[in-house]
Write a structure and sequence with these properties.
Layout (H helix, E strand, L loop, with lengths): L9 E4 L1 E4 L2 E8 L17 H30 L6 H9 L2 H14 L3 H17 L4 H21 L8 H4 L4 E5 L4 H5 L6 E6 L7 H8 L4 E3 L4 H4 L5 E5 L4 E4 L3 H22 L15 E6 L5 H7 L4 E5 L1 H5 L7 H15 L3 E5 L26 H7 L1 H15 L3 E6 L5 H20 L10 E5 L2 H5 L1 H6 L3 E4 L1 H9 L17 H16 L3 E4 L10 H6 L4 E4 L4 H8 L4 H13 L3 H15 L9
Parallel strand pairs: 3-4, 4-5, 5-6, 9-10, 9-16, 10-11, 11-12, 12-13, 13-14, 14-15, 15-16
Antiparallel strand pairs: 1-8, 2-6, 3-7, 7-8
Helix pairs in contact: 1-2, 1-5, 2-5, 3-4, 4-5, 11-13, 13-15, 15-16, 20-23, 23-24
The protein binds phosphoenolpyruvate and magnesium ion.
Length: about 600
Amino acid sequence: MSAVPPKGERTFTGIAVSPGVCQGRVVVLGKIHAAAARHSLTDAELPAEINRFKQALVVTRQQLSEVQRRLTEKMGAEHAGIFEAHLLVLDDPEVNNEVLRFIQNDKVNAEFAYQTVAERYAASLAAVDDEYLRERAADMRDIASRVLNNLHGRGDDGDLRNILKEPCIVVAHDLAPSQTAQMDRDKVLGFATDVGSRTSHTAIMARSMKIPAVVGLKTITSDLRTGDTVLLDGVNGLIIVNPTDQTLFEYGQLARRQRSLDEKLRENQNKPAITLDGHRVTLSGNIEHADDSEAIRSSGAEGVGLFRTEYLFINHESVPSEQEQFEFYHSVAAALAPNPVVIRTLDLGGDKFKSDTNVPQEMNPFLGWRAIRFCLEEKDLFRTQLRAILRASAAGNVKMMYPMISGLEELAGANALLEECKKELRAKRIPFDEKMEVGIMVEIPAAVMIADVLARNTKFFSLGTNDLIQYSLAVDRTNEKIAHLYDPTHPAIVRLIKHTVDAAHAAGNWVGVCGEMAGDPVLVPLLLGLGVDELSAAPPTVPQLKFLIRRLKISEARELAAFALKSDSSADIMQGCFELAHRSAPEIFPEGI
Ligand code: PEP
Ligand code: MG
């Protein structure tokens, strides 16, 4: 990059979460509940402002009616009833007349007038000692954010498909993983957000969908406007506004180098993941959708090490039936047989929510009613999934694992339900794999401490390092403000991984890593040196991992691990990882821009 950026070019730096470079027109999505700025108007401007406000109400009414119509079609009128309440709030003459008077008398812009009035009504409703009225406060705020988005000309942000009409770069305060998962690859060239981090599920989805992304840009929604043209660099975490010809030339060269590296990596696709000194590694892929099996095959992965089933629930209008789930799991298992497919039972919660479930908002969602805790209480929902997985196991090499296991009681509780389901299927003579391996995610420090006990009661472990790091270091994995504290080479993390591997091996079990550490080529030699048997990563990263493994010596990886286990410095461990990875496969670390 040129040392002094020429005039006109501006660069914003954030956290690179999904590689790739794109250039295009920006669409800024509304920041829900952002304070509307106050602008004074002249008398002459007032009629147009009043008209703009009335027009925003009309557009909002059309959007609500459309959502109501779609929902009625899919789920019946009773589920769409909430929109009746919303339409009533939108058309409340008391509120709307007050806004009109405010614009007229105080000569202010419609956004400011509407937000001020709506918030006053919402606050007084929220303070009333009546549950029904308190709920209307939430309706009022919900409607207010829709009207404000329309006043800003930002459309209906809830459903990206409604506003992205042509290829663009999406800029938002935050995106839910469910929104990212629904992105149309042809319409979204890349995205940038104010908040977020590398291991948030939004970032994980972006990597798996190969959408270049930069997060944690803090103020990017205010820095950019819809219509700006920018270059997004998901490798170095940059947004460049008004890139100069020199910058575009440099990026063109980077893209050419990347294309020739991709070709080189493809040559390895059908070769085994084996080190120079003959150590065999199982290299698998993480998937979120039933139609991801092609991505697994073309990446050169040997199977699926983590099937995050929650996306089948999040982006589904209703809870998928046993038959629907069976079809999802069966299609992946059959497509990849005889390669293994590790299906993880539902891990809802944390930052993955189903928009229409009644899970109450929690103060600490990552420590809350999540994953196996949720499933052990929602037993019918859990049994439905267990039966669907068991039935799919007849079609291929299916293994199953439970997320967020903290102790033996949870494991025993889940296994008891599994046994009930097996009995049911046997009674109905429905086939399933009687020997289906059952394992657990190791992602809570308590599970590591009792790994010997858990290993005796399971067939395998999969280390969920995203959560293990978050819980061990007490660092929220989605919070960009403390992203620098989220430290995979912290000596504690190295020892936790080693402890888990030793416990698994002592019981004769295999152990994998399916957290994002497994997809980072710099950290892979350390994981292998610590004795990890399997790595599972987003399919687009698998080719470079295989390339690296085939150029690595396990003896050197073990030396690195021995050093890391004795070291008291995270920086020294990271430096050792960096040196070994770069020395072994310099080709996959192309020079930055
Ligand atoms: C993990 O925690 O490392 C993991 C793989 O699970 P998830 O990212 O879905 O929480
Ligand atoms: Mg996890």
